[in-house]
Design a protein that fits this description.
84 residues, mainly alpha, 3 helices
Length: 84
């Protein structure tokens, strides 16, 4: 069986999401369990097009997490400096 050429990209995405999950509002353990379940569920996929689509979805999730964190940071800063 030949190794999938997209494997390094999948591993990079997993590590990136794992890193982003440290600050998840429901806790890093919750996020890690969900992330692991999602990757385990799709580990048997062999079609490169499907894998690329899943990588794109994972990168979208990473961008959404970053936006969530920036928004939380902005709200905390705003609360510190402005009274509402």
């Amino acid at each position: 069986m030949m190794a999938n050429p997209l494997r390094p990209e999948v591993v990079r995405l997993y590590k990136n999401l794992l890193y982003l999950g440290r600050e998840y509002p429901k806790g890093s353990d919750y996020f890690r369990a969900r992330l692991r379940a999602a990757f385990t569920k799709n580990k048997s996929v062999q079609d490169p097009e499907q894998i690329k689509a899943m990588i794109a979805r994972g990168e979208y999730v990473a961008q959404e997490l970053e936006a969530l964190y920036y928004l939380r940071k902005y709200r905390a800063m705003k609360k510190r400096y402005y009274e509402e």
